[in-house]
Amino acid sequence: MTSAPRLRFAPSPTGFFHVGGARTALYNWALAERLGGTFVLRIEDTDESRNSPEWTQGIIDALGWLGINSDSPQFEGPYFQSHNADKHIAAAHRLFEQGNAYWCDLTSEQIQERAKASGKPGYDGFSRDRALGAGIGHVLRFRVPQGLTVVHDLVRGEVQFANETIEDFVLLRGNGSPMFLLANVVDDIDMAITHVVRAEEHLPNTPKQQMIWNALGAQPPLWAHVPVLVNEQRKKLSKRRDKVALEQYKADGILADAMVNYLMTLGWAPHGDTEIVSWSTMVEQFRLESVNHSPAFFDVKKLEAFNGDYIRALSPSDFIAACQPWLTASDVAWTPAQFDVAVFALVAPLIQTRVAVLGEVASMVDFFFLAEAPIDDASWAKAMSSEWARDVLDECAREYATCDWNHDSLKLVLEAIGAKRDLKLGKVQAPLRVAITGRTVGPPLFESIEFLGRDRTLGRIDAALLRLA
Ligand code: GLU
């Protein structure tokens, strides 16, 4: 191919952005970047129930979040499939005039009856030689030639389809509207697409679409079908069963860079022994030929592990900035007056190493800002059930009233209190942690207590003792 490559991403709007679509978009974007080509965004909006401007904006926003920036010179579009209906219909008529398509007036009941009678499922080509013209309720069908269709797929290699297994498929519906198979090809030809990189579920469409390309006298594109995404049970990701919306992961506090890196590794791996690599490395190394054929497991735990790595790699100030949306969200436990950004900056390093998603941050630091420890009942029951809890807290209150106020000495004091009772620090700190933070897990305890200060710490221990009494 001599001209510059033109790739495209052609989502059908669904109201949210599927992580599988995000992976497909990124593969196209990475290739366009490496090959010096163009990434065309085409919204396949011919289904009117799926035609809403907010959804289109949602797609553009989601792509932008992934770094697929519509202002980039590499980006072209968005185009709208619905605006091209005339071209789709004209192509269909051309196929009819050339003899590649014919009209058929059978109803679906009649088709079923014929299939039942012959024992062969599907449409049997009944109208092929009936020379019908266009008419109300007539569908236009493609005349599938005899022989074999070979699809050269960059991911899967050569895939062969016996044409006798493909029925004469519909190009125009009875109401004259174009079918997806046709519209999608006509748009690809019109937009001079050279590479069709898309989800594996479209592979059965490909022999039919390649026939349309050929019949319209165009050189079919390079095809690549990327593997389906599955959940832990190896079932295809579905919006009913699984969390599939990119927006949801964003809201949970997955960083865009981590998401991009993780999505790229679903079916492909960068060279070397780490999968965590920069975008430029992925662009340089990504090849469709090395994409796996087998389904890719969308592993939320692995995504979160990637995200944890990306979070830890942030500079302290970038981490603080990245946390902002979750600190000012409407569901935080504190009032705006209680929140102190300087305190957050102080404690941020304690949690940066501990969070997997930024959505966890607020509940890890809320106890610094609230007037009282936000006691979680289950944590309380777990930590305070021992017979020594009260006694330990009591002694702690006395010692903490006078000891040096730094995390080392706060720790030593509690260690000594534990030692007197033959209790390890891990055990003896549980009631104190719940008294101070409200929960059994959280940031490092003694650093937290140091930041909280003597007065508030003693107040919380007293409150816990009161509650225990
Ligand atoms: N609109 C189709 C979809 O969202 C994509 C078709 C294609 O990429 O060729 O599944």
What does this structure look like?
The chain has helices at residues 19-35, 53-65, 85-97, 108-118, 180-190, 206-215, 246-252, 256-264, 279-285, 300-313, 316-327, 341-352, 361-369, 377-384, 389-400, 407-420, 425-437, 445-452, 454-468; strands spanning 6-9, 38-43, 75-80, 101-104, 139-142, 148-153, 157-162, 170-172, 195-199, 222-226, 229-230, 296-297. By secondary structure, the protein is mainly alpha-helical. It has 3 domains: 1-230, Rossmann fold (3-Layer(aba) Sandwich); 314-369, Orthogonal Bundle (Helicase, Ruva Protein, domain 3), CATH 1.10.8; 377-468, Arc Repressor Mutant, subunit A (Orthogonal Bundle). The protein has a 3-stranded parallel β-sheet with strand order 1-2-3. A 3-stranded antiparallel β-sheet has the order 4-5-8. The protein has a two-stranded antiparallel ribbon with strand order 6-7. It is elongated. The structure holds glutamic acid. Glutamic acid is lined by residues 10-12, 44, 184, 196, 198, 202.
